[in-house]
Design goal:
alpha+beta
Length: 243
C-alpha cells in the first residue's frame, strides 16, 4: 500500500504542469466558451471505470492508484483565460485513488477520489455495476454500470456528471480485454459573479465509448483504458491490487 501512495504522489507531481489554477475570471469567457470548457470537463471529469466487466465476487477487491490524461486543447485557451493562468494547457492529467468491492449476485460497487494538484479542485466518483453475465471459460462477462462524479472546492463552478454504460470482457490467461459504450449527462453551473454577469448553466449529454486491457499478475494488477467522451479522448492507467 505504501508503494501505491508513493506512485500516486509521483503521478501528482507530473500532473502539476498540466493542472488548471483556480477560476478567477470565469465570468469573462462568454457563454459559447463556457460551453466548450464544460464539454471538455465532461470528458475529463466523468467516471472512468478502468476495469473489466467480470464481477469481483463477494470476497473480491480492486484497489489502485490511477491517472487519466485528457486532451482539452479545444478549450485550452478558455481555461487559460478563466483561471488567469500564464501557462497554455492542452492536456489535463488527473491522479485518482480507486477502490472497488465485490458483492453477492454479480454486483460491484466502487468509488474514486481526486485532488488535482496545485488547485482547489476535488472530485468524488461512485459506481454501481451489475454483471448480467458473469463470464467463464467459454462465455464473456457482460455488465451494466451507473456512475456519477461531483466536483467541489471551486466556488465559481458547480459541476457534476452521471453516466450509464454497458461493457463486455473476456479473460485470456492473465489478460482481460474489454470494450464498452454508454452516455454521460453533464451539468455545469456557474456560481457567484459569473451568474451576475450573464453566464447560465449548461446541461447536455455526451456519447461515450471505451476499450481497455486488464493485466493480473497474481495479486498485482495493471489496467490501461482509452476513452472517447463527446469526441474528446482520454487515456487512463491504473496500478494496484485485484483479487
Amino acid at each position: 500500500m505504501k508503494k501505491l501512495f508513493a506512485l500516486l504522489c509521483l503521478v501528482a507531481g507530473f500532473s502539476q504542469s498540466a493542472s488548471a489554477a483556480n477560476f478567477t475570471a470565469l465570468s469573462g469567457v462568454g457563454q459559447a466558451n463556457f460551453r466548450l470548457l464544460s464539454e471538455d470537463f465532461g470528458s475529463a471529469l466523468s467516471y472512468k471505470p478502468v476495469t473489466p466487466a467480470e464481477p469481483l465476487g463477494i470476497t473480491g477487491f480492486d484497489i489502485g492508484v490511477e491517472a487519466t490524461s485528457t486532451d482539452i486543447s479545444k478549450s485550452g485557451a478558455v481555461l487559460k483565460q478563466a483561471t488567469g493562468s500564464a501557462v497554455d494547457v492542452t492536456r489535463l492529467i488527473i491522479p485518482k485513488l480507486h477502490v472497488a468491492k465485490g458483492l453477492p449476485f454479480g454486483i460491484d460497487v466502487a468509488a474514486s477520489y481526486v485532488s488535482v494538484p496545485s488547485t482547489d479542485i476535488k472530485l468524488v466518483g461512485a459506481e454501481l455495476r451489475y454483471a448480467i453475465l458473469g463470464g467463464g471459460i467459454a462465455l464473456p462477462a457482460i455488465a451494466i454500470r451507473a456512475a456519477m462524479t461531483s466536483m467541489s472546492g471551486v466556488p465559481e463552478l458547480d459541476f457534476n456528471t452521471k453516466s450509464l454504460d454497458i461493457s463486455i470482457s473476456k479473460g485470456i490467461l492473465m489478460f482481460t480485454p474489454y470494450v464498452g459504450a454508454g452516455q454521460v449527462w453533464v451539468t455545469s453551473t456557474p456560481q457567484g459573479t459569473a451568474t451576475s454577469l450573464g453566464l447560465v448553466a449548461e446541461s447536455f449529454t455526451q456519447n461515450k465509448v471505451f476499450a481497455g486491457l486488464n493485466i493480473n499478475l497474481g495479486l498485482l494488477n495493471f489496467a490501461l483504458e482509452g476513452d472517447t467522451t463527446g469526441g474528446t479522448s482520454s487515456a487512463s492507467f491504473k496500478m494496484g491490487f485485484r483479487w
